[in-house]
Write a structure and sequence with these properties.
The chain is an alpha/beta fold. Helices cover about 25% and strands about 20% of the residues. The protein is built from ten helices and 18 strands. The strands form four sheets. The chain has an eight-stranded parallel beta sheet with strand order 8-6-5-4-3-2-1-10. The protein has a six-stranded antiparallel beta sheet with strand order 11-12-13-18-15-16, with helices on one face. Helix 6 links the parallel strand 4 and strand 5. The protein is globular. About 50% of the residues are buried. The chain binds alpha-D-galactopyranose. Alpha-D-galactopyranose (GLA) binds next to loops.
């Protein structure tokens, strides 16, 4: 792999307009978000893509080309991309494999090559490619392949993010279309049941398909929405947002922030920029966590996920998925550990304080968790 120019060597990180703003987007908003990504520390934490989702387009093509809505984007997309680039960020745009986008704007079906050319001329570094209004729901591989080829022919490196909602098991074929990430489920909204279903129920068993340059995408983050914005459906508690973000980090999922980072609460900002969690997500081995426990006991559900890391450590996530506190056993016998081996274990803290490492006692590692709380541990071999 040519690692210098390669795209998505680790899971892509950025911000996307959809979860908060839906189609209510405009050039000033995007410039403000670009400013915040830099001034509030997101870019330094790794969030480099600023992606404009659906709703940027004018309703009709001009000379066969997609054009932005002149009221929302009066200076045009090239100027906006230049602004985004001037901040050290990468610029992302959205289109759809069908005749129309999901919000009813013109889609790229039959215009893949000219659209890819347009996006490249604007300076796009990322394309999210959706699946609404796909004619007759024919085989999507062909359409995604076509856009993949169109992007390659522009000679402009672009992260290709396909959004087929997991309908045709894209994890099995998306990498071959040139995609760097592929949605595995329908849209997630800002409420715990949705996060639980998309993340904790649907992602297990997909780890063998993820890796450098091709990632399973369980949808954009709802952390920090706090029941505001386009996908608000009740919101989540702090513990639920932490469990959501921690799982996405363990899954080596793309981390696309959906909240309005100009006004996000401090807790969510710290969570999104948590250096240890982001490091687990960005680990160069690029292994997606596997679930080793999913159990119900006395009406309480718990899960344990394990992610091997490049330095030989192992990240272990214990999740309480119930609305009551529990004592969660770490099931060391089921972790890929040598039963006679000597290990150290450290629980990550949220406030940045350092928990001390201590010796792992096989069979007796337990942690008290509040309702919906999780604990992420790093386990390393004792030298
Ligand atoms: C679909 C996608 C969402 C978003 C909207 C835009 O629902 O899955 O992520 O892009 O379309 O209309």
């Amino acid at each position: 792999m040519d690692t210098k120019n390669a795209i998505a060597v680790t899971p892509p990180m950025g911000w996307n307009s959809w979860n908060t703003f839906g189609c209510e987007i405009n050039e000033q908003l995007i410039m403000d978000v670009a400013d915040s990504l830099v001034s509030s520390g997101y870019l330094s934490a790794g969030y480099e893509y600023l992606v404009i989702d659906d709703g940027w387009q004018a309703m009709t093509r001009e000379n066969g080309r997609l054009v932005p809505d002149p009221k929302k984007f009066p200076a045009g997309m090239r100027a906006l991309a230049d602004y985004v680039h001037s901040k050290g960020l990468k610029f992302g745009i959205y289109s759809c494999a069908g005749n129309k986008t999901c919000a009813g704007y013109p889609g790229s079906f039959g215009n893949e090559f000219i659209d890819a050319e347009t996006f490249a001329e604007w300076g796009a570094d990322f394309l999210k490619f959706d699946y609404c209004y796909f004619p007759d729901w024919a085989d999507p591989k062909i359409a995604y392949q076509k856009m993949g080829q169109a992007l390659r022919e522009t000679n402009r490196p672009m992260c290709y993010s396909i959004c087929e909602w997991g309908k045709n098991q894209p994890w099995k074929w998306a990498r071959n279309t040139g995609a760097h990430m592929w949605r595995t489920t329908i849209d997630m909204v800002d409420k715990w049941d949705s996060v639980r279903w998309v993340g904790f129920d649907m992602q297990n068993g997909l780890s063998s398909y993820a890796g450098p340059q091709g990632w399973n995408d369980p949808d954009m983050l709802v952390v920090g929405l706090n029941n505001q914005g386009f996908v608000a459906e009740g919101g989540c508690t702090q513990h639920q947002y932490v469990s959501h973000f921690s799982l996405w980090c363990m899954l080596a999922a793309p981390l696309m922030i959906g909240a309005d980072i100009r006004s996000i609460d401090n807790f969510s900002q710290r969570l999104l920029q948590h250096p240890d969690l982001v490091a687990i997500n960005q680990d160069p081995l690029g292994i997606q966590a596997n679930r080793i426990i999913d159990s119900w006991q006395n009406d309480m559900r718990r899960q344990i996920w394990v992610k091997p890391l490049a330095n030989g450590d192992m990240a272990v996530g214990g999740f309480n998925l119930s609305d009551q506190p529990m004592l969660l056993e770490l099931a060391t016998g089921q972790l890929p550990l040598n039963p006679d081996g000597q290990y150290q274990i450290r629980r990550l803290t949220l406030d940045g304080s350092k928990n001390r490492r201590h010796s792992l006692v096989h069979g007796e590692q337990k942690v008290q968790l509040d309702a919906f709380e999780c604990a992420i541990f790093l386990i390393s071999k004792k030298d």
